Amino acid sequence: MTIQEYISAHRERFMAEWASLLRIPSVSCQEEHKADMLRCAERWRELLIEAGAQHAEIMPSEGNPFVYAEYTPAQPKQTVLVYAHYDVMPAEPLEQWHSNPWEPEIREEQGALRLFARGADDDKGQAMIQVKAFEFLVKNALLESQVKFLFEGEEEIGSPSLERFIREHRDLLRCDVILVSDTSMIGKNTPSITTGLRGLAYWQVEVTGPNRDLHSGHFGGAVKNPINALCEMLSRVVDAHGRIVVPHFYDHVLPIPDAERAMMAQIPFDEATYRQAIDVDAVFGEEGFSTLERNSCRPSFDICGIWGGYQGEGSKTVIPSKAFAKISCRLVANQNHEEISNNMAEYLQSIAPQGVRVNVTPMHGGQGYVCPIDIPAYKAAEKGFETAFGKRPLAARRGGSIPIISTFEQVLGVKTILMGFGLEQNAIHSPNESMDLDVWEKGIVAVATFYQNL
Question: Which residues pair with 226 in a beta bridge?
């Protein structure tokens, strides 16, 4: 039986099992859903056993429990660890949903059948792709890899229990490659594999001048204004060519391989449309790189918030005592977020003008990640997409951050293949989240083919 025949024969059951998960409001950030988290974990345990796992259990953590399952053939050629998460974002605002977010509904939209529910894509729908591909291979005696599943219930709140869990269970989770379906493709007709994620460093900057707010007439021109000082300092982080001038910032930034740059050039992108969509008349960034390269493969610096002084109605002529800003850098693979954090703090201190005191507080950060496109596991994923979608997928780095991926590499020492099947129109985290059913079924084909070519 082919994978397409198997899906057709079991489609109704697949939909029912998927719906049974989507009906559980496993919202990790809301205490009222604590019992639902355990209920969802238990449902996943049942479905993994039914799919063919030889062992599945719910494992406790400091927060929500993990679901662990495994299958080992007689002579495994390698071990694949499948990671996913069963928690979801809140459904609010409920009034913006066109159907009940906790009662899955299939309807046609823009010529495609889509399943609407919270978690339809992120990540219950994509996790189900993994489980159903696994089921097909086990039931048809085609699986030659040992497969381990690790599903967590805290991804949407930053995975606070995950790193400790994988360090404590390093031997249990030992594997040759990690497989994750929790990312997106460029488009339904432009399949892609995410090959890179940016890291992050984030700070709060506090600049203090006089010991109280001062009358700007009595003191203006004689005392350094903390807001002026803060603006001067932040304006000196990036030069006119778009490069960050903090010492040693680029020491470990690797060039983009020519093969990846060539693939990125094939990504459909119209700069005029891009500018129009965000209503700006020009783009800006590091010279020598395209817009797509700048927002995915190169580091960046941004002021995320800035405040100080009087902000109420009308005017108040004061020199404020303090000024504040929240700033961040997106980082790329090989940049250490802790080193960057220290370097940024030292740089801002070094350029602070006389008359003010500067305090830089690191807030949080994470490592970037990049997956080479010439390793066997990537080639197997590439073949999977090509079989399912009829064309070779593009390698595409993403500008966002998923810190758990770099944590896996640091702790387990293996690469992660990001076989994601989301689309922009799936509206994850938003009202009316959905999953394209044609893409969902092709995802099952792609993952099954990945294992057969690994």
Answer: none
